[in-house]
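Final report, closing paragraph on structural work. Over the funding period we assembled a curated collection of sequence-structure pairs, and we close with a single example.
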Amino acid sequence: MSEPILDITGLNKSFGPVHVLHDVDFGVRAGEVTALVGDNGAGKSTLVKCIAGIHPYDTGSVRFNGADAHIRGPKDAAELGIEVVYQDLALADNLDIVQNMFLGRERGSSWLLDEASMEKAARETLASLGVRTVKSVRTPVSALSGGQRQTVAIAKSVLWNSKVVILDEPTAALGVAQTKQVLDLVRRLAEQGLGVVLISHNMADVFEVADRIDVLYLGRLVADVQTKDVTHSQVVELITAGRSGELGLARPEAVAL
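Its predicted structure, as stored:
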């Protein structure tokens, strides 16, 4: 088994008296899709925001590409090569695809943008991901479908030589055809050697594209398993009860012993 490109050990995070994450160990491997699942309030969003540098973690260690790393803010995460596509996508409807993909990172001088270079890079990035549903990179985002918007947001995240891409509910509110397009894109990201984290409540999506499944239960990582080694019902039990058979939290009687 390859060493994780992102390796988090013993991560803890509290908000005042509320201990949200408890000694979480979490790894992401290059070329794999890791599904991060859990019920509402399990700590998924907090873990992602700690990885992205939005929330400082209290204790724990982070290694990236085999070296110790310190994530003190979003800039640190971005410099390492960690990009997050949040559920709201953070796209500007009044701008076109190129302008959105380079928003805040425009090429050119302070008085003249290099539109040709940015347009070429946007086209090449979409082409490298096998995206064929977007006719023109100059299409305003307001004219795109939900699936196309998600595609643009994902393409934007890989434009900057990212190594780990975290996708927060990428198929939420999408139709069947659009969901398939996005899941195909998720697989292509992993095939290109990126480490992909998929956060989803949709178990069908998880079992279709994920290589591994990590389950959070009340702030604790209770399972890190190969997708092929578990069933749908086992994962649901881990999400809702923290254990399923020999997987997950120890049984109370075992703890008493």
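The chain has nine helices and twelve strands. The longest strand covers residues 18-28. We thank the funder for supporting this effort.
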